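Justification of resources, computational component.

The compute hours requested in this renewal are based largely on the per-chain cost of generating structure records like the one below. Each record pairs the submitted sequence with a full structure-token output. That output is archived, and it is also reused by downstream analysis tasks.
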Amino acid sequence: MKGKPVLIVTSSPAFTGGVRAQAHLREVLTGMLARVIVWPQVVIAGVHGKVQNGRVADETTVQFLHEAVGGLAAEISLLRRSLA
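The structure output for this chain reads:
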């Protein structure tokens, strides 16, 4: 994982959305020298009400996820250019 860009996304039926799990995972990935993307925490709280038929149905959540993945893609692009 050393040097690899990583985006952490958690979800939970609880209102916290897996924040504590995300904190632990961030600590582990940092210890592995992964490049954890600095982004507002991507936590999907109350996930049971936002997913229908296996797909995220909540439009606000979908938009936030798209932006976060876009941030990951931008980080990957920057890393590729710096290695070229």
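Residues 15 and 45 are 5 Å apart (CA to CA). The beta strands are 5-6, 9-12, 35-36, 42-45, 51-52, 55-56.
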